[in-house]
């Protein structure tokens, strides 16, 4: 699980609690807190460098976990989307 949250986000504490509870349940969690970011800052890509960085991180995260599966079984992409 990848969680992006800004430190100026109204749901920061909710996000950190979600990460803690998921970890306690055995989930592999990456919690990334972006400095000076607010709710849904990703929406401001490509105008905001942090948004572009976050989207690139999401892509790398998905690629690392699904990339080989998709390359080996391209038809599975339709099932994942």
Tell me about this structure.
The chain contains 3 helices and 2 strands, in the order βαβαα. It has helices at residues 12-24, 49-72, 76-80, and strands at residues 2-6, 30-34. Strands 1-2 form a two-stranded parallel sheet. The protein is flat and about 40 Å long.
Sequence-ordered SSE layout with sheet pairings:
Elements: E1 2-6, H1 12-24, E2 30-34, H2 49-72, H3 76-80
Parallel strand pairs: 1-2
Quick structural gist:
52% of the residues lie in helices and 12% in strands. The protein has one domain. It is α+β, with helices and mostly antiparallel strands.
Number of strands: 2
The main sheet orders its strands as 1-2
Question: Helix count?
Answer: 3
Strand-residue proportion:
5-15%
Features of the shown structure:
two-stranded parallel ribbon, single chain, 81 residues, alpha+beta, flat
């Amino acid at each position: 699980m990848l969680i992006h949250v800004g430190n100026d986000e109204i749901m920061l504490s909710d996000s950190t609690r979600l990460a803690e509870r998921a970890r306690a349940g055995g989930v592999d969690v990456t919690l990334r807190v972006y400095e000076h970011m607010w709710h849904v800052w990703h929406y401001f890509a490509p105008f905001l460098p942090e948004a572009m960085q976050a989207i690139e991180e999401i892509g790398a995260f998905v690629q690392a976990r699904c990339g080989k599966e998709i390359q080996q079984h391209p038809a599975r992409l339709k099932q994942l989307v």
